[in-house]
Amino acid sequence: MQVTEKKNKTLPIDCKHFIDGQYIPSFNQKTFLNINPATEEVLGSVSEGGELEIDLAVKAAKRALKGEWKQFTSNQRAAVLRKIGDGILARKEELAALEAMDTGKPYDLALEVDITRSAHNFYFFADYITTLSSESHMQDQTALHYTYRRPVGVVGMINPWNLPLLLLTWKLAPCLAAGNTAVMKPAEWTPMTATVLAEICKDAGVPDGVVNVVHGFGANAAGSALTEHRDVDAITFTGETKTGSAIMKAAAPTLKKLSFELGGKNPNIIFADSDLDEVIETTLKSSFMNQGEVCLCGSRIYVQRSIFDEFIDKFVAKTKELKIGDPFEEGTKVGAVISKEHYEKVLSYIEIAKEEGGTILTGGSRPASIEKGCFITPTIITGLSRDSRCVREEIFGPVVTVMPFDSEEEVIEWANDTHYGLGATIWTNDLRRAHRVAHQIEAGIIWVNTWYLRDLRTPFGGMKQSGLGREGGIHSFEFYSELSNITIKL
Ligand code: NAD
């Protein structure tokens, strides 16, 4: 297959830091290996950054804030952002192949979702910045008040491995649109697309030092160094809730502005009056897309009792049809999970489910036909109580639990019985019920009769322990800019 051949030709792919417009290794030449979770082959080596590399990058970003970047008008920044979007699309097959090799996700998914949406992030924020208006208030005849937005400064970006380029560009596009500079730390598992993005930014005319990438690990490594650095003005982080908590603590002494997109355990509530075929089609995606490694996946499925058996029969049958295996093979819907460690973690939850009295209706192990790689067959579990660990804890893999419910009040209580509050999906054709339930579900992103439908103007983020702040449209600018109010006495 063409893409697979292209992939083989490019190995090994070594990832260096990108600091002040140049690719550089670590000072001590330290590296770690990047492994393809689908094949277990070594993709290449990755420079391992620490305090010194972070400091170099932050210094470059701080200098760049005062350099030619400062003179860019919003129209000029928008033009650069559009060029970055074009640059991503021009290299979309290459980026999709890198993303598939790094993460184990299907190549087609990477191409259609991760890479295409990454380019769109830049196009969207390019348009947004040129239409952003300021507030002004006339106070009788005495004073004119108006708001003035300026960049926050050097923004540290700490990213997860599940949607590497998509989530990184979701941060970088508004960050640049607002005139900031960035030091990005990609997840250690997925360094490749961030490395290429730095080059695309340079080619698009981003001045040196504005975009920097430092590879490395999180705790007591590059991640901590970025979080603790006194010249980093803000940290935007997407990842696990417990990491968010550690970052908050580490950022406290320097009082950085923080934006967190954290974990979730999202309910998918299916009422008996919904269109079952549509429900099944979308629920397959909301359960198993990207191997279930999407923070928005609906891993707790609640089905009204009168349609429970029919739902289960159809859902299990369709799940068994999902093609699992080589991410580069056409038609593959489920690839490998990110790493051996994560593979073990997901399988351990399936064992816990068995111990807790759950019934595995399909999946529950690696596919018998695949010998290598971190593959787990899409897994559906029933018979668990609401207190079971598999129902309460984020598994972040191709595993869902399904439970029957009787009343609206009951399912709302169950849906909210969690420390998380990221997303929720409600399926019903009763308009009043849709609104009534949506208003009571404690989540930042609620879909009715759909899932993963996005409009980048809308607020994205979680409540409770799923996040801090919102991203998207004006909400991104609330984070990436500082607002001053100027009052003129008349
Ligand atoms: P993670 O928290 O383990 O790691 C994320 C990043 O943080 C990595 O770059 C890592 O190196 C870094 N890191 C780890 N410890 C650190 C520390 N002490 N200081 C600074 N940096 C540190 O998360 P993950 O396993 O990569 O990603 C999966 C998690 O991300 C899941 O919980 C998922 O729900 C969440 N997620 C949330 C969203 C959202 O929008 N809410 C989106 C995607 C993923």
From TrEMBL:
Residue ranges annotated for the Aldehyde dehydrogenase domain, each copy included: 29-484
Annotated active site: 261
One Pfam family recorded for the sequence: Aldedh
Keywords annotated in UniProt: NAD, Oxidoreductase
Entry keyword annotation includes Oxidoreductase: yes
Gene3D superfamilies linked: Aldehyde Dehydrogenase, Chain A, domain 1, Aldehyde Dehydrogenase, Chain A, domain 2
Protein family: Belongs to the aldehyde dehydrogenase family.
Protein's UniProt name: 5-carboxymethyl-2-hydroxymuconate semialdehyde dehydrogenase
